[in-house]
Amino acid sequence: MEPRKNKPLRALVVDDMASMRMVIKAVLNQMGCIDIVEASNGKDALQYLVANNNSVDILICDWNMPGMTGLEVLQKVRAKPELKRLPVLLVTAEQSKQQVKDAVIAGVTGYVTKPFTPAILQEHIQACLNKRVR
């Protein structure tokens, strides 16, 4: 992904719970990110990414959502050449070793478990952003 020089950080936050999207948006705002797009499901998130030509710098996605899981979103993102390098942070209440392994195999950039503090979420977001291809 080409760095977006002199442009604000853009994030896509995907979670079926509006309250969780608000929490994540608040952390992103604290980090100086004022350009935040929201989606309540994986299908809408993928449509946005394709329609807007990979115009976000990070995708933050819940794992457990109806219709399409965060893992499925991640797999579809990684299957698209234009999205392959997009940093993806999965946020989940699930902590099984198998799920972590599945996410790593699928190409996740970062993984944070709920509940988390704003500081922990910010740390994970920054780590994902630091892994962007420059």
Provide an overview of this structure.
With 134 residues, the chain is of the alpha/beta class. It contains 5 helices and 5 strands, in the order βαβαβαβαβα. It has helices at 18-30, 42-51, 70-79, 97-106, 118-130; strands at residues 10-14, 35-39, 58-62, 88-92, 110-113. The protein has a 5-stranded parallel β-sheet with strand order 2-1-3-4-5, with helices on both faces.
Highlighted features:
134 residues, alpha/beta, 5 helices
Give the topology, please.
Blueprint: E1 10-14, H1 18-30, E2 35-39, H2 42-51, E3 58-62, H3 70-79, E4 88-92, H4 97-106, E5 110-113, H5 118-130
Parallel strand pairs: 1-2, 1-3, 3-4, 4-5
Q: Radius of gyration in whole Å, from Cα? A: 13 Å
Q: How many strand elements?
A: 5
Q: Secondary-structure element sequence?
A: EHEHEHEHEH
Separation, N- and C-terminal Cα atoms? 7 Å
- Strands side by side in the biggest sheet: 2-1-3-4-5
Q: Name the average pLDDT.
A: 90
Helical content, roughly? Answer: 40-55%
The rough form would be described as: globular
Structural class: alpha/beta
User: What oligomeric state do the depicted chains represent?
Assistant: single chain
Poorly predicted segments: none
Strand content: 15-25%
Give a short summary of the structure.
The chain has 134 residues and is of the alpha/beta class. It is built from five helices and five strands; from the N terminus they run βαβαβαβαβα. Helix 1 packs across helix 5.
